[in-house]
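User: Some background: our group keeps a shared notebook of sequences we're curious about, and every so often someone picks one and asks for a predicted structure to add to the entry. Today it's my turn. The entry only has the sequence so far, pasted here. Could you supply the structure so I can complete it?
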Amino acid sequence: MTKFPVDAPILKVVRALGKLGFQIVREGNHIALVRKNSDGTLTPMTIPNHSTIKKSTLRTILTQAKIDRNDFLKAYFS
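Assistant: Of course. Here's the predicted structure to add to the notebook entry:
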């Protein structure tokens, strides 16, 4: 099993989220993203705009957005 990134670069995290269907809506101190789901609903997400994202913060973000850890890791490392 691939290890979860400890201090993930923000650009790599945003790129992985883009592969999972999220698009950037707004960028400032935080990055606001949104994903259109197949049933027509939207999944909003806000992540801090730091140079790196800590492991615990990233796990919390994925849990709140209901993103499977393995799906994220595939997108992150591909």
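Suggested note for the entry: The domain at 7-77 is CATH 3.30.920.30 (Metal Transport, Frataxin; Chain A). The chain has one domain: 7-77.
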